[in-house]
Amino acid sequence: MSRESRTRHAPRPMADRPTAPFDSAESAWFWYQRARLNRAEGARLRADPLSMARPCDPDDIVRAVTRLARARTLQGHHLRVLDRHGRRLTPPDGRLPEEAADATIWHEALDHLAAPLRSKGIVA
After folding, report:
1. Domain limits for position 96
2. Is residue 103 part of a domain?
3. Is position 110 within any domain?
4. What DSSP state is assigned to residue 83?
């Protein structure tokens, strides 16, 4: 095979504008969930010219969660709570008796997620 016939893969260009990390793992998680819900509804992900550019793709966040789950840092109960409240786009309210346990698990899961997201510059 000659050099000319090989397919070359180039990385996608980053946004032309400066990026800003999320202020917390929670805000990154909700951003990912909104993107996921938009994709499920058939929306194409386009940069909103008025919104702030982010230093990642939504898939970067799910990859971090997947790595934590494979390492058993995040367990099934963490993933269920992240998914349930992520779909609602609201954190569990620890003041409500029916959500108190979820609130504890939610904060624990996001504490675990914050470290890898911070190390990649996704969370400040």
Report:
1. 58-124
2. yes
3. yes
4. H
| Residues in contact with 64: Cβ distance below 8 Å, sequence separation at least 6, in sequence order | 113, 116, 117, 120, 122
Residue whose C-alpha is closest to residue 109's, from 81, 84, 70:
81
- 53-73: burial string, b at 16+ Cβ within 10 Å, e else: ebbbebebbeebbeebeeeee
pTM: 0.77
Q: Where are the alpha helices (DSSP H) in the chain?
A: 25-40, 58-70, 76-88, 100-119
pLDDT tens digits in sequence order for the chain, 124 residues long: 555 566 666 555 554 667 789 999 999 999 999 999 888 777 565 555 445 677 788 999 999 999 999 999 999 999 999 999 999 999 999 999 999 999 999 999 999 999 999 999 999 9
Number of domains in the chain: 1
Q: Which two tokens stand for residue 33?
A: 């969930």
Exposed / middle / buried, residue 123 (Cβ in 10 Å: 0-12, 13-18, 19+):
buried
